[in-house]
């Protein structure tokens, strides 16, 4: 368990947060200037809050009331920045072990670093450099790992290359991770818990699927990036059509390509703007995915849009329609309708292990 309850004033900006996060990846999301980096620096000990408490497990890193403020070297914090910050004159092997060699064989294996050990940073791709930086942080035997937008400088192919390693790290290590990002697709793939900051305060927090499917989050994420996250199981293949069948509590989804292995669990992010609503089961449509759903919430936005929370089985979905469409359909909480999802609406960046 991670507890962060701090207040810090920086001129006209003030950070005032109270976060309780379970094990796993806690993603910190927010617009530029919302306080993400300020929060991470407070955890690392790079800045001192005016008041509050930071506790990782049983270790108290900061407690203003008890006058505890451990210096950064004593906090056992691993910090991975946007740029890898590797020593250019050292081999990958020496970069990895610069701060320690805790569990070196496992770290090298889990991050796929064996082929890189004798190379220099200049000969690595951006994704490879970030894997080395992550390995170096882990070999310091951290009790918490901080990642401040570690993929922000990478293009889409390099992100696709490194994300599976991050997923494996999440699933196979016990180190709690604070992951700062402004990319909803990254958050949806990696996070266990999501904390959304707005002007230095926690606007909404909770399990990632619950937060991303809430209509309350649409104004904070933006209408084009809001969308729900569901966990599905690979159930079969339609080889002639190059489709994969996914099962979840709300029914079946067909997605393009050959995804995962049979029986494997996959996270799927479904953008709210790509969910179409219908009062009756549609016929004669090209869309392959039609799910019976129940409206759980309707939240008008500041503009012409309306966010509609939906329950599909035990899962939550999110749709965004115009206020005019909601009125013409006479949408109401508790109403049973249909959600239509095009198979091509979910991109490769929205599918993770």
Summarize the structure in words:
Keywords: ATP-binding, Cell inner membrane, Cell membrane, Membrane, Molybdenum, Nucleotide-binding, Translocase, Transport. This protein is α+β, with helices and mostly antiparallel strands. The protein has 2 domains: about 1-210, P-loop containing nucleotide triphosphate hydrolases (Rossmann fold), CATH 3.40.50; about 225-350, Beta Barrel (OB fold (Dihydrolipoamide Acetyltransferase, E2P)), CATH 2.40.50. It has helices at about 35-45, 90-95, 105-110, 125-140, 155-170, 185-190, 210, 220, 325-330, and strands spanning about 1-10, 15-20, 25-30, 50-55, 60-65, 70, 75-80, 145-150, 175-180, 195-200, 200-205, 225-240, 245-250, 250-255, 265-270, 275-280, 290-300, 305-310, 315-320, 335-340, 350. Helix 4 (about 125-140) runs parallel beside helix 5. The two termini are about 25 Å apart. The mean pLDDT is about 90.
- Biggest sheet statistics: 6 strands, mixed
Domains counted in the coordinates: how many? 2
Order of helices and strands: EEEHEEEEHHHEHEHEEHHEEEEEEEEHEE
Structural Rg: 22 Å
The CATH homologous superfamily name of the largest domain equals P-loop containing nucleotide triphosphate hydrolases
Helix content: 10-25%
In DSSP terms (H or I, runs of 4 or more residues), the helix count works out at 9
Determine the mean pLDDT: 91
For the terminal residues, how far apart are their CA atoms? 24 Å
CATH hierarchy class name of the largest domain = Alpha Beta
Strand order of the largest sheet: 7-8-9-3-10-11
CATH topology of the largest domain, by name, is: Rossmann fold
**Beta-strand content:** 35-45%
Gross morphology is globular
Counting copies of identical and different chains, the oligomeric state is single chain
Q: Count of DSSP E strands?
A: 21
């Amino acid at each position: 368990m991670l507890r962060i309850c701090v207040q810090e004033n920086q001129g006209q900006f003030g950070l005032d947060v109270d976060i309780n996060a379970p094990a796993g990846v806690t993603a910190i999301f927010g617009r530029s200037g919302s306080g993400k980096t300020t929060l991470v620096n407070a955890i690392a000990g790079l800045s001192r809050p005016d008041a509050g408490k930071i506790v990782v497990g049983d270790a108290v890193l900061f407690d203003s009331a008890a006058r505890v403020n451990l210096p950064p070297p004593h906090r056992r914090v691993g910090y991975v920045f946007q740029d890898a910050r590797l020593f250019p004159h050292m081999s990958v092997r020496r970069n990895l072990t610069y701060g320690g060699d805790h569990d070196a064989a496992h770290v090298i294996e889990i991050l796929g670093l064996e082929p890189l050990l004798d190379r220099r940073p200049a000969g690595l791709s951006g994704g490879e450099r970030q894997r080395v930086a992550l390995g170096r942080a882990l070999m310091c035997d951290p009790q918490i790992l901080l990642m401040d937008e570690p993929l922000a400088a990478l293009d889409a192919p390099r992100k696709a290359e490194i994300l599976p390693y991050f997923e494996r790290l999440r699933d196979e290590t016990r180190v709690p991770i604070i992951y700062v990002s402004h990319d909803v697709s990254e958050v949806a793939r990696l996070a266990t818990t999501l904390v959304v900051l707005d002007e230095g305060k926690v606007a909404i927090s909770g399990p990632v699927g619950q937060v991303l499917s809430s209509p309350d989050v649409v104004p904070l994420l933006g209408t084009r990036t809001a969308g729900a996250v569901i966990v599905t199981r690979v159930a079969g293949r339609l080889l002639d059509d190059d489709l994969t069948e996914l099962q979840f509590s709300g029914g079946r989804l067909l997605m393009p390509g050959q995804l995962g292995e049979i029986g494997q669990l996959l996270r799927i992010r479904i953008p709210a703007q790509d969910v179409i609503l219908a009062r009756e089961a549609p016929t004669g449509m090209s869309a392959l995915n039609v799910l019976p759903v129940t409206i759980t919430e309707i939240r008008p936005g500041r503009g012409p849009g309306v966010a509609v929370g939906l329950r599909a089985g035990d899962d939550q979905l999110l749709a965004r329609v115009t206020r005019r469409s909601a009125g013409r359909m006479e949408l109401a909480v508790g109403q049973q309708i249909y959600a239509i999802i095009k198979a091509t609406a979910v991109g490769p960046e929205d599918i993770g292990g």
